[in-house]
């Protein structure tokens, strides 16, 4: 199931010409993924406090199609497409209305907050993610 997060492009997101700086699309995707986790009661704060784990980005790829501009209303979609014991992959698409702005994939890895080493996703979280992945297919 695809989750959609809406956000407005602010002045701080753009260059002098009012065009979104290319690196900010990754920030927009991060915000959407964070909200996706929160909507499923898997917020990073809770994950850190109760399981001493956190998800960190280990790989990202992005294809830019069109530029977003100052005050555009963007929709950032999040879809879990792969799940392993220590990682997950998300497909994300950013649109402005019907216009495809960019799309990409992001792999996040689960790490221990003390050692910062890869660590299995806590069972309760893994089960929830696995359920979400199965229902999406």
UniProtKB/TrEMBL annotation:
Database matches in PANTHER family: 4-HYDROXYBENZOYL-COA THIOESTERASE FAMILY MEMBER, ACYL-COA THIOESTER HYDROLASE YBGC
Protein name as catalogued: Acyl-CoA thioesterase
Record keywords: Hydrolase
Domain of life the protein comes from: Bacteria
InterPro entries in alphabetical order: 4-hydroxybenzoyl-CoA_TE (IPR050563), HotDog_dom_sf (IPR029069), YbgC/YbaW (IPR006684)
Family named by the database record: Belongs to the 4-hydroxybenzoyl-CoA thioesterase family.
